[in-house]
Automatic annotation (TrEMBL):
Spans through the membrane: 12-30, 101-122, 134-160, 180-200, 239-261, 281-307
Keyword list, A-Z: Cell membrane, Membrane, Transmembrane, Transmembrane helix, Transport
Major localisation: membrane
Record has Cell membrane as a keyword: yes
PROSITE patterns registered for this protein in UniProt: ABC_TM1
The name this protein goes by in its record: ABC transporter permease
InterPro entries: BPD_transp_1_N, MetI-like, MetI-like_sf
Gene Ontology biological-process annotations: transmembrane transport
Domain ABC transmembrane type-1, first and last residues per copy: 95-300
Family the entry assigns: Belongs to the binding-protein-dependent transport system permease family.
UniProt GO cellular component terms: plasma membrane
One Pfam family it belongs to: BPD_transp_1
Length: 314
């Protein structure tokens, strides 16, 4: 297990290093001068040049990258180029909002996908299996923005049950906070449950067809013990992998969902910062997203190694 952990940590640092290279140099290829955008329409060339020097954008890109990495290692993610706020302060405000939405959306997707997946597996090619597959095809096919708008039109504008969007602090109004969460959480949960269902069903069907399952049934082991003890445990690694992947992607920023429902999370912050060419904010947001992704996948790999000794030994 220690050897596996060492290997995964090495891969983690290599991934983060390449992420810093890609986000830093790719973002600077985008058109638009941050200094000019900050000064507004038709600024004086002298003012643009002075602000460019002040922001450190006059130095060679490799020097800018080195300075940024040195600051990140010291825990300094920089300041916003437009409002002067520390990036850590902005992230501390946005990340909990995205985390809350991602956790609730992931839990809802698991609550939908796991029962459907088990029932579809136990009743292969029955009407239950066909209904579940139609639902998963629906979740795979529809765009997230279309489902979000559909739910908004139905529950906010037609029935007037829920707010169409916006954020309400829990301390300000617990009921308002929960109502504002419903539509984005349902959108995320439905979209992601389709992927989890497909992986779980295919994984369980693969395990059920193996010889040791037939042997357990031949010995008279009850069906529920076969499914719960043997099939579920052996299908668990694929389920954990897809759940971890979906959750890490949710944490990295649900850009579309947050934009539609005006949820001020990490995805919303990234879009606003990209549009305004706020380099430090975008770089820090992408880097934090990458850290979330690699750590969550590392945890998933360690859990899978614990569940399946073959992974650990290999």
């Amino acid at each position: 297990m220690l050897r596996l952990l060492t290997k995964k940590l090495t891969e983690l640092f290599l991934v983060l290093f390449f992420v810093t290279l890609i986000v830093f140099f790719t973002f600077r290829l985008l058109p638009g001068d941050p200094a000019q955008m900050r000064l507004g329409m038709d600024p004086a060339p002298e003012a643009v040049a002075a602000l460019t020097i002040e922001m450190g954008l006059d130095k060679p890109l490799i020097v800018q990258y080195g300075n940024w990495i040195a600051d990140v290692v010291r825990g300094d993610l920089g300041k916003s180029m437009f409002d002067g706020k520390p990036v850590t302060e902005l992230l501390a405000d946005k990340i909990p909002k995205t985390f809350e939405l991602a956790v609730l959306g992931a839990l809802l997707s698991i609550m939908i996908a796991v029962p459907f997946g088990v029932l579809a597996t136990l009743n292969k090619n029955s009407w239950i299996d066909k209904l579940a597959r139609v639902f998963s095809l629906f979740g795979f096919s529809i765009p997230a923005y279309w489902l979000a708008v559909l739910l908004m039109l139905l529950f906010a504008y037609q029935m007037h049950w829920l707010p169409a969007g916006g954020y309400v602090s829990f301390t300000e109004s617990p009921s308002g906070h929960m109502k504002a969460l419903v539509l984005p959480v349902v959108t995320v949960g439905i979209i992601n449950s389709a992927q989890i269902f497909r992986f779980l069903r295919s994984g369980m069907l693969e395990v059920i067809s193996q010889d040791f399952i037939r042997t357990a049934r031949a010995k008279g082991v009850s069906e529920w013990v076969v499914i719960g003890k043997h099939v579920a445990r052996n299908a668990m690694p694929s389920l954990i992998t897809i759940v971890a992947l979906n959750f890490s992607l949710l944490l990295s920023g649900m850009v579309i969902t947050e934009q539609i429902f005006a949820w001020p999370g990490l995805g919303w912050l990234m879009i606003q910062s990209i549009l305004s060419r706020d380099y430090d904010v975008v770089q820090a947001a992408v880097l934090i997203s990458a850290v979330f992704i690699v750590i969550i996948n590392l945890i998933a790999d360690l859990i899978n190694a614990w569940l399946d000794p073959r992974i650990k030994y290999n």
